[in-house]
């Protein structure tokens, strides 16, 4: 079974066993939490080279992992507002497209990694939480050109996104997120990557 299918299966297993874990987790959880998500799709605003047969501007094996700290919850409109700060790491799977260079657009395959800090504001009602986040990330992109050669470039840029979570119990939650991450693949090509991900978090 490929990783593409293993991750959703693992989340379903987590959903089944997490309520059982709640009986052992009697103390109220603290402010620290950690989580990880599988990016099942990451779309970019790259442009294909004309007649590039294998062009795919979306990558399918992406991910993020994060640790966070929550501040005191604030009552708001029948629910509670939950401010937090997170340290998050990103990894972007292979995207096949055209990349702008000083010598024109060239076909290639690009990937990226990144590390960022972001503020998160959530609104919780019952077991559901809606959240928005904004921050900054340092990303490093690399492109291998199909005709030979490669480039690598780093960038610091603004990140933001929205998400929803469902609490299985006081410790475990499932998440569905969208994140926009800026990536620079070479000296001429900067792209916006939109990552859609499904994951889980644990509050300590």
Overview features:
single chain, 204 residues, mainly beta, eight-stranded antiparallel β-barrel, 10 strands, 9% helix
Topology (elements, then pairings):
Elements lengths: L2 H19 L10 E13 L13 E2 L2 E9 L3 E3 L2 E23 L2 E22 L2 E18 L4 E18 L4 E13 L5 E14 L1
Antiparallel strand pairs: 1-2, 1-3, 1-10, 3-5, 4-5, 5-6, 6-7, 7-8, 8-9, 9-10
Provide the structure class.
Answer: mainly beta
Order of helices and strands: HEEEEEEEEEE
Cα-based radius of gyration, to the nearest Å: 19 Å
What is the count of β-strands?
Answer: 10
Largest beta sheet, briefly?
8 strands, antiparallel, barrel
* Approximate helicity band: under 10%
Q: Name the beta content range.
A: over 45%
Which strands sit side by side, in order, in the main sheet? 1-3-5-6-7-8-9-10
Shape descriptor reads elongated
Which ranges are low-confidence, i.e. pLDDT below 50, for 5 or more consecutive residues? none
Total helical segments: 1
First-to-last CA distance: 31 Å
Q: What is the overall pLDDT average?
A: 89
Describe this structure in words.
There is one protein chain. With 204 residues, the protein is mostly beta strands. The chain has 1 helix and 10 strands, in the order αββββββββββ. Strands 1-3-5-6-7-8-9-10 form an 8-stranded antiparallel beta barrel. The radius of gyration is 19 Å and the shape is elongated. The two termini are 31 Å apart. The mean pLDDT is 89.
Can you give me a brief rundown of this structure?
This protein has 204 residues and is mainly beta. Helix content is 9%, strand content 66%.
């Amino acid at each position: 079974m490929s990783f593409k299918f293993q991750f959703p299966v693992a989340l379903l297993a987590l959903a089944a066993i997490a309520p059982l874990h709640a009986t052992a987790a009697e103390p109220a959880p603290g402010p620290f939490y950690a989580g990880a998500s599988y990016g099942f799709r990451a779309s970019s605003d790259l442009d294909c080279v004309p007649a590039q047969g294998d062009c795919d501007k979306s990558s399918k094996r992406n991910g993020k992992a994060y640790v966070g700290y929550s501040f005191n919850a604030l009552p708001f409109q029948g629910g509670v507002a939950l401010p937090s700060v997170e340290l998050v790491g990103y990894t972007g799977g292979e995207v096949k497209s055209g990349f702008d260079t000083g010598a024109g657009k060239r076909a290639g395959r690009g990937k990226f990694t990144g590390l960022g800090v972001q503020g998160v504001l959530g609104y919780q009602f019952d077991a559901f939480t809606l959240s928005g986040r904004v921050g900054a990330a340092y990303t490093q992109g690399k492109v291998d050109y199909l005709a030979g050669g490669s480039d690598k470039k780093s960038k610091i840029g603004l990140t933001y996104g929205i998400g929803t979570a469902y609490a299985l119990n006081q410790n475990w939650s499932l998440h569905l997120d969208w994140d926009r991450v800026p990536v620079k693949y070479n000296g001429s090509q900067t792209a916006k990557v939109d990552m859609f991900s499904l994951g889980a978090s644990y509050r300590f």
